[in-house]
Specification:
- The protein has about 170 residues and is α+β, with helices and mostly antiparallel strands.
- It has helices at about 5-50, 95-105, 135, 150-160, 165-170; strands at about 55-60, 65-75, 80.
- Strands 1-2-3 form a 3-stranded antiparallel sheet, covered by helices on one side.
- The chain is globular.
- It starts with a helix and ends with a helix.
Length: about 170
């Protein structure tokens, strides 16, 4: 049988550990609350300054989503509200940024313009496998506009591809 002093020490250590975990959880909750308030203020200001009707915002820290929220309207005409999963039509705005990022990878030797998509992405329709990066960047791949994709292509298009997923193919 343990002496009374040892049992008392164990009880005190257990209580301290529980209190530490409680305070840690309170601290994490407070940090998230503070982050949410900061993001809310930033988005509200941006919406006010630019007249933007809505945003879908996600914040990740070390690869873990710590905040996601829809702000304003997804569609002003119908009055539908934005959610964290709202997909906004941004037309071709991202093409320039995508091309720049791809060319930086080409400069670094991590990507070739003649690489087929299948070298970097596993879960794509068979018809897309031989399409090259060059064809994608020059809009000569034959892949239709995302607004006219088949259900199989939409499934592929809707699946987010993470940087980690792409990096995994570098070592293969």
């Amino acid at each position: 049988m343990l002496p009374f002093i040892t049992i008392r020490r164990i009880s005190i250590l257990t209580a301290l550990a529980a209190a530490s975990l409680f305070l840690l959880n309170v601290s994490v909750a407070a940090q998230r609350s503070s982050l949410t308030k900061q993001v809310d203020r930033l988005v509200a200001k941006r919406m006010s300054d630019t007249g933007t009707p809505g945003f879908a915002v996600g914040v990740a820290v070390n690869g873990r989503v710590v905040h996601r929220k829809g702000y304003g309207y997804a569609n002003v005409e119908t009055g539908s509200l934005a959610t964290p999963r709202t997909v906004f039509s941004i037309a071709s705005v991202t093409k320039t940024f995508t091309a720049m990022a791809a060319m930086k990878l080409v400069e670094q030797g991590r990507l070739s313009l003649d690489d087929p998509l299948s070298k970097h992405l596993d879960d794509i329709p068979a018809a897309w496998r031989p399409i090259t990066i060059r064809q994608l960047l020059s809009n000569t791949s034959g892949i239709r506009s995302f607004t006219s994709l088949t259900p199989d292509e939409q499934r592929c298009n809707a699946s987010p591809v993470s940087y980690t997923h792409l990096r995994a193919h570098e070592t293969a």
